[in-house]
Amino acid sequence: MNQPQRPDEAPPGRVIPLPRATPAPGAAVPPAVARPEVTRRVTPRPADEGQGFDRSRFSRQVYPLRVLGLSLGLLCVGGTLAAQDAPRWTWALLLVHCLGWPHLARWRALRSADPRRAEYVNLGVDSALGAMWMAIMAVSVVPTMVLLATLSIDKAAVGGWRLLLRHLPIMVGAFLLAWVPLGMPFEPATGMAATLAALPLLLAHPVAIAFTAHGLGRRVRRQNRSLRALNRTDALTGLGNRRAIDEALAAEFHRCERSGRPAALLLVDLDRFKAINDQHGHGFGDEVLRRVGLAIRGVVGEIDIAARLGGDEFAVLLPETEPDTAIYVATRIRAAICAQIFERAPGLRCTASIGVASVAPVADGAEAWMERADRALYAAKDDGRDCVRAAP
Question: Is 312 considered catalytic here?
Answer without folding.
Answer: yes
